[in-house]
């Protein structure tokens, strides 16, 4: 058995920030999960529905691995990412750092992991691997998935090699701090402004605040859109609150990030942005509750209410980002 020492499986919500926390703490940098999410400019929004989609998808963050890239660039970290189609090379890419005493981040499809209770394909899942033996790999996942867990090496290999939406070719990565680390506190405002700029300037109508507006138009039709409303709507609501989002489709994480920032920086616009995202987080939870009720009852009125709140949320988040962009 080969195990990296002093790995802490801290209770966290989102897979990518969980993994970043493991890798960075091992390097000596200990930041909260909301701070990792915010410094990585992780907040976004997408309403996705296509012919190949069984049911519409509401996403609340940037694409998988973009958060990691953003954070590494902002803090001057050395991010070493590798991809390959070779199973042999894929294993070497993770075994070598672990043998050298360093944990490794992996992007994979969680469907094939032994410990996952909900068997749904998601190719953008990220875990930290810190050890292995002849049969199993030792991982750190989110708190709701068990924290420190293990899965068979065969299942892990299948998960890493899976092809489909949001997958990567056996992607693995390590992070190294520079000899003279940048002050992460100095990167807070640039991270907020970059996130706001991207959110406000989204190039297509299903992204950013325009995407939330579109969701407000489409959600009231979801009873007709769903193949099995009693299954599809509660599942969509569950993913918004419990699907590794930290609650309220990642808005709770961003609210908490902004709260931490107000304790570092005395700025009225920052406090306004925090207040608006605290309101947004509460309202997103209302939306998920109403969507679940619509699926359980078959009553379209709940979706009409959810649609009205989404129209409000488009305005709230647009106003919040406009304020935060001015920092």
Automatic annotation (TrEMBL):
Pfam families: BtrH_N, DUF4872. InterPro entries: BtrH_N, DUF4872. It comes from the Bacteria. Residues 155-324 form the DUF4872 domain. Residues 14-142 form the Butirosin biosynthesis protein H N-terminal domain. This is BtrH N-terminal domain-containing protein.
